[in-house]
């Protein structure tokens, strides 16, 4: 952003940004519209991203690329800048892989993480069920111990990377106690008997992203695939969700920045009543307001990033960043679309796609109402 330094990023982060930009230009931009038509990104792209060192950025070698969350943030920003919304990289690298790294046994880490870093194995996490979204404690998927296996029964929905995933962390009830107690995390691998996938869900946005229903009918999951301790799943989930919320905030700020710049360019080039649209005071005031709000968001999100790199980001701050970021992104992208007039409503104009894709930011990762609940608890 003009005139703004970002001390949270080091030189190695900025060098990584240059590398990511080249990859985006070469391997993503030319193909993204096709992926949106197909509703999925080919697994070959995941392999290329693995070869380029773009997956599991924040985990140590050999589980990842030996970077930190700053590298993850750079990748998230660069994808948001071009609205490459078809890619499910952050669920894979910044949600699933960190769970495996934090709570997995040495054997589990060796089996799954290096393959995930290479893009040969794609990760998903399945919490949400048709009857339980915000209220994770209400999940009904159950896993009953039977010798060396768990017998898993239930249904999950809205699962990102659901079709391509070779490994899914499934949130299931292993105990009979209600609520948070008795919730465990089970790693279910492709080919597990009784594990099937439903249709890929059609969405109004994120059209290239693979979002699926998953079914477990007496699925036999080896007991060795339990992640961490039995009954501790809810605690693990609560611990890791802040990072997911920060990702949404980082993406929102980068998206606003990119589309503000494009809107400035567009309005400077478009004439109405003998002057450019940019020259109308209404336009300049809208864009000035957007810049002022974005600058505040950026400072806050970068502060959250710095805290997170020191492992000091609280759940409350992460919730504030997600709430403010996604709300602001929705509001400002709507203003930017308006300034594009009818062209903004045309499919070939990128602002329309970004506007629709932004909508889910207020819903997933915990809805913005739930974010307010989290903030309200600390009042
Ligand atoms: C594109 C997409 C990708 C997703 N990817 C995944 C994934 O990979 N894995 C996964 O597990 N899930 C995923 N989800 C699910 C997502 O996390 C849930 O949709 C979200 O948590 C909300 O749950 P719900 O849809 O059941 O809504 P509900 O919980 O039914 O909420 C409906 C409305 O009620 C409000 N509400 C609920 N509780 C409260 C409350 N206590 N106070 C005030 N208002 C409340 C909500 O804010 C919302 O407005 C994805 C969703 C989408 C759309």
TrEMBL record:
GO terms for molecular function: acyl-CoA dehydrogenase activity; flavin adenine dinucleotide binding. Residues 124-218 form the Acyl-CoA oxidase/dehydrogenase middle domain. Belongs to the acyl-CoA dehydrogenase family. This is Acyl-[acyl-carrier-protein] dehydrogenase MbtN. Catalyzes the dehydrogenation at the alpha-beta position of ACP-bound acyl chains. This results in the introduction of a double bond in the lipidic chain, which is further transferred to the epsilon-amino group of lysine residue in the mycobactin core by MbtK. GO terms for biological process: fatty acid beta-oxidation using acyl-CoA dehydrogenase. It comes from the Bacteria. Keywords: FAD, Flavoprotein, Oxidoreductase. It holds the Pfam family Acyl-CoA_dh_M. Its cofactor is FAD. InterPro entries: Acyl-CoA_dehydrogenase (IPR050741), Acyl-CoA_DH_CS (IPR006089), Acyl-CoA_Oxase/DH_mid-dom (IPR006091), Acyl-CoA_Oxase/DH_mid-dom_sf (IPR046373), AcylCo_DH-like_C (IPR036250), AcylCo_DH/oxidase_C (IPR009075), AcylCoA_DH/ox_N (IPR013786), AcylCoA_DH/ox_N_sf (IPR037069). Residues 11-120 form the Acyl-CoA dehydrogenase/oxidase N-terminal domain. Pathway: Siderophore biosynthesis; mycobactin biosynthesis. The keyword Transmembrane helix does not apply. Gene3D superfamilies: Acyl-CoA dehydrogenase/oxidase, N-terminal domain, Butyryl-CoA Dehydrogenase, subunit A, domain 2, Butyryl-CoA Dehydrogenase, subunit A, domain 3. Residues 231-379 form the Acyl-CoA dehydrogenase/oxidase C-terminal domain. GO terms for cellular component: cytoplasm.
């Amino acid at each position: 952003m003009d005139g703004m330094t970002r001390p949270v990023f080091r030189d190695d982060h900025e060098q990584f940004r240059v590398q990511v930009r080249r990859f985006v230009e070469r391997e993503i931009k030319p193909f993204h519209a096709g992926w949106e038509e197909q509703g999925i990104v080919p697994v070959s792209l995941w392999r290329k991203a693995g070869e380029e060192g773009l997956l599991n950025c924040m985990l140590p070698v050999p589980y990842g690329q030996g970077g930190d969350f700053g590298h993850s943030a750079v990748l998230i920003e660069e994808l948001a800048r071009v609205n490459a919304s078809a890619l499910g990289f952050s669920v894979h690298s910044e949600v699933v892989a960190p769970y495996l790294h934090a709570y997995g046994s040495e054997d589990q880490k060796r089996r799954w993480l290096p393959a995930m870093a290479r893009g040969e194995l794609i990760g998903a996490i399945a919490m949400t069920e048709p009857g339980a979204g915000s209220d994770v404690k209400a999940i009904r998927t159950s896993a009953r111990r039977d010798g060396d296996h768990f017998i898993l029964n239930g249904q999950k929905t809205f699962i990102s990377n659901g079709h391509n995933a070779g490994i899914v962390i499934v949130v299931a009830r292993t105990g009979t106690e209600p609520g948070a107690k008795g919730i465990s995390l089970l790693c279910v691998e492709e080919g597990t008997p009784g594990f099937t996938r439903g249709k890929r869900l059609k969405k109004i946005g994120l059209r290239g992203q693979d979002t699926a229903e998953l079914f477990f009918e007496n699925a036999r999951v080896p007991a060795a695939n339990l992640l961490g301790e039995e009954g501790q799943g809810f605690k693990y989930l609560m611990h890791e969700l802040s990072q997911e919320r920060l990702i949404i905030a980082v993406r929102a700020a980068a998206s606003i920045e990119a589309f503000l710049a494009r809107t400035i360019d567009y309005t400077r080039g478009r004439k109405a009543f003998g002057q450019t649209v940019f020259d109308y005071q209404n336009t300049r005031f809208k864009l000035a307001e957007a810049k002022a709000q974005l600058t505040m968001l950026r400072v806050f999100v970068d502060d959250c990033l710095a805290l997170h790199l020191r492992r000091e980001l609280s759940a409350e701050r992460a919730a504030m960043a997600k709430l403010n970021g996604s709300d602001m992104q929705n509001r400002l992208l709507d203003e930017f679309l308006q300034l594009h007039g009818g062209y903004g409503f045309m499919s070939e104009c990128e602002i329309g796609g970004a506007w629709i894709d932004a909508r889910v930011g207020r819903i997933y990762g915990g809805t913005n109402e739930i974010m307010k609940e989290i903030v309200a608890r600390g009042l």
